[in-house]
Structure formats: C-alpha cells, structure tokens
Amino acid sequence: MFFFLYDSLLLVCLSFSFYSSASATNVASYLARRTSSQVQSFTHDFNVALGVVLTSREKLQPQVHLTTGSQTVFCKSDAGATSAGSNSSSSSSSSGSSGTTKSTGTSTNTASAAGSSSTGVAISTPYRLVEEHVGSDFFDGWTFTDAADVTTHVSQFYVAGLVDYVDQGTASDNNLTEITSGGTAIMRVETTATVTGNRQSIRITTNNVYNSGLWILDAVHMPTGCGTWPAFWTNGPNWPDGGEIDIVEGVGDNTNDQATLHTLEGCSLASSSSSALGITGSVITSTDCVSTGGGCGIRSSSTVSYGAAFNGNGGGVFTMTLNSSGIAVWFFERSNIPSDITSGTPLPSLWGTPFAWWSSPTCNVTEFFGYQSTIFDTTLCGDLAGSVWSDAGAPGQEQSCATRTGVSDCDTFVQNNGAALQEAYWEINSVKIYQIPS
Ligand SMILES: *[C@@H]1O[C@H](CO)[C@@H](O)[C@H](O)[C@H]1NC(C)=O
Ligand SMILES: *[C@@H]1O[C@H](CO)[C@@H](O)[C@H](O)[C@H]1NC(C)=O
Ligand SMILES: *[C@@H]1O[C@H](CO)[C@@H](O)[C@H](O)[C@H]1NC(C)=O
Ligand SMILES: *[C@@H]1O[C@H](CO)[C@@H](O)[C@H](O)[C@H]1NC(C)=O
Prior knowledge:
Elements: E1 9-17, H1 23-33, H2 36-58, E2 66-67, E3 71-79, E4 113-116, E5 122-125, E6 128-134, E7 142-144, E8 163-165, H3 168-173, E9 177-179, E10 185-187, E11 199-201, E12 203-206, E13 213-221, E14 228-235, E15 244-249, E16 258-262, H4 274-277, E17 282-283, E18 296-299, H5 307-312, E19 316-323, E20 326-333, H6 339-342, E21 356-359, H7 365-368, E22 373-380, H8 382-387, H9 401-405, H10 410-416, E23 426-435
Parallel strand pairs: 8-11
Antiparallel strand pairs: 1-3, 2-3, 4-5, 6-23, 7-12, 9-10, 10-23, 12-22, 13-19, 13-23, 14-15, 14-22, 15-16, 16-18, 17-18, 19-20, 20-21
The structure holds 2-acetamido-2-deoxy-beta-D-glucopyranose (4 copies).
One 2-acetamido-2-deoxy-beta-D-glucopyranose (NAG) binds next to β19 and β20.
C-alpha cells in the first residue's frame, strides 16, 4: 500500500510556539484520540516501507521537541509520488530538467538582462528566467500527487493528514483546480458539507529541479483557517540528504509566515539573534537545522505574511535565493513589491534585509542542498494542525481552534464543516524560477 514511499520521502516541518504549558499533554491526548488501529496500521506500513530510514534516524535525538512548554517542532512527511529528484550531476547552476515542464530554457549566455522599473529606471540583473507557471498554463510542468496524505511529526506516532491528494483530471473535474478568468490558478480542498473520511486536496511538485537560483511566488490567497496546514516549499532528493527549504508554511489562523530548513547533521544558524544573523525575522526553533531535531525555523515579523491577514491584504510575494553562500527568504506585501520583481528583472541586492538567511560559514549549502523540486500542498489536521488544535498563543492564534470552533478535535471539525474550509485555497498569480547562467 505504501510502496510509493520508496520513491521519495518528503517532509516539511514547522516549529510551533505554544504559550500553553499544556502543549505536551494536548499532543499526547490528540494522538490518544486517534483510534489505535489507525495509528498502528499506518505506523506499520510506514515502518515496513521506511525501516532503514527510521532505524538510522531513531539512533539520533528525540524527534519531537516539547521544550519548556513553549515550543514544539512538527514535520510533515509525505509520499511524493512524483518524478522529482531527477539526478543530474551537472554544474551548480543548471537544471535537471525532465519531461514536460514548461521552461524558458533559452538562457545560455551570461549577459545581464535589462529591465525597467516602474519609475523608468533600468535594472540590470544577472538572473534569467528558467521556468514560469502563470495563467492558463499554470499547471503545466507539475506532477499531481495521487495518494492519501502521509504526515507525521516524526515521533513514534505517524498520523496522516485528513486529505487524499488527487490527480490532475480529478482535481479539475471536482473544481479543486481552476484557472480564473483573471488568469490566476486556484487549488482548493473539498468543501462537501460532511465527509466520513478524508477530504480531497491538491499537492503538486515541479518536474524540473534546480540546485541554485531564485524562486518567486506571487500569491493572492493562501489556505487559512482552523484545521489547515498549507506549504510552499522545495525539497532535494532522498530526504533529508538533499535538504528541504520551507518558504511559506503555517497552520490554522497564523498571521506570520515561517521559513525553515531541514538537513542532514552539520548545518546550523550561527546564532539565534536576529541582529547577529542580519535578518528581520526571529529564530523560533533550535539553531540546528538537522531534520531529526525539526529543522531551523525563522518567523517573519510581518503580520500580513500568512493566512487571513495575507489574504485580506491582497497577498504578496515571497522570494528565496539558493546559492553557495546561503539561502535567503524575503516577503513583500502587495503594496510594496519591488519594481525589479514586477518588471521581470529581479535583483536581490535591491531588496534590503531578508527575513530569513542561513549562510555558508555555518551551513555549507553545496553540501547540504541538492537539486530542489518545488511543491505546493494543503493538508488538513494531521500531526500539526490536529495536534495544536487546543493550543493558543502563536501570532494570529491567540485563541485556540478548539475554543474558536467549539469542537474539541480537528478531525471532527474538518469532517463536519465543509463550509468552514471555503478559505482553504491557494490563488496564485505566478511561480517563477530564475538562475544566473554559468
Ligand atoms: C468552484 O468552486 C468555487 C468556490 O467554491 C465556486 O465559487 C464555483 O462556482 C465552483 N465552480 C463550479 C463550476 O462548480
Ligand atoms: C544520483 O545518481 C548517482 C549515480 O547514479 C547515485 O549514486 C546517487 O545515489 C543519486 N543520488 C540521488 C540523490 O538520487
Ligand atoms: C547568493 O545569494 C545572496 C542572497 O541573495 C546574495 O547576497 C549573494 O550575492 C549570492 N551569491 C552569489 C555568489 O550569487
Ligand atoms: C562545501 O561542500 C562542498 C561539497 O561537499 C565542498 O566541496 C566544499 O569544500 C565545502 N566547503 C567548505 C568551506 O567546507
């Protein structure tokens, strides 16, 4: 049943700050509420499929941190029934392209691209567009995962998210994907009033992979609300060997985005101090990026960088650069998108301080990050959104979902309140990937 897990194990992790000392208890009681057969049968399949991985990881430190009642780290592990991770060994700035991905693929020279800002000032950038997803062709070049979700907070418990990811035809037939008349791409979850099992959802992974470059997501809307756990992220082959970069991630009613790295042992942040790191965000996890510890997460200081606040503000742009000197993430709200980005001639040196920056002196990016595929997913409940259902205190989640909904657990709420998931959708203007030609 879980044969596809051999293909690629993809995890996306999130550290969640609790302000409730009952956090550990809440997690444990949530897990206890799951029927033991659900947990056991899943755990069994997962162990059968991934015995070697689990064995080696179990030798390391405990995989769920419940530190001082204030912070927990969760990971989303998923069967990537995808063709991602095509294993090119070419130079550090080339793409391992495969198959049908829409790629501009025309830039082989090193001349600068010239653009013009909205104020008419010409911008010269070494970055060239190598892949874009926009308009009626948005869904070209992605592989739709066609399998139940498999999420976990990498402890001995493995609790799947409450979604079945569906293939492209089913997604379109069931109105889960749509290209709007305005040219935006929509990815929804199923909003049928009540379901007895999982709700249908979307998870897409690019066919092309890159081990350096600049990623730009322009989103109008992201999934939000109690029970939701969406992410936009990249992942290298053979997790965690190839590294993982979470660019947009959060849960429930969060208002501040969190970016996180997950790696093999040996990559870290030099400090937990924002000023020492030269970032505008805050380190809210361990400084050690090792996947078994839950990764190293940095939260944006912008209260409109995630969730309903982001949506209500017209969305915005997330950018991520990956190169041998480090990995940086910026967020720009709609009213403040740099003109070099809108003109298609992005130049990161114009963007000011990133909210997140992991740099090479303490994390050798060349060593820890392989060719990255790019992923959108929306899951429901599962280890994170389910486990923190009764917790409050993270920005935007001043009141717990249990209090807000009056329903004591995530699954019951999500299964019986389809209308409450009307906001659980992505609406995307574009995803663009640029590289500096070698
Ligand atoms: C698809 O879903 C959206 C959001 O619920 C709705 O507004 C729209 O009418 C639906 N389209 C179709 C063809 O059912
Ligand atoms: C890449 O290919 C090489 C040679 O075929 C193989 O040894 C290696 O395991 C592959 N790496 C990944 C990450 O798939
Ligand atoms: C790598 O990315 C950072 C952040 O965008 C940038 O400051 C730096 O110049 C880049 N280095 C190279 C070699 O491209
Ligand atoms: C970073 O890792 C690469 C690949 O393993 C290696 O060639 C390089 O020497 C490392 N750089 C440093 C500064 O350790």
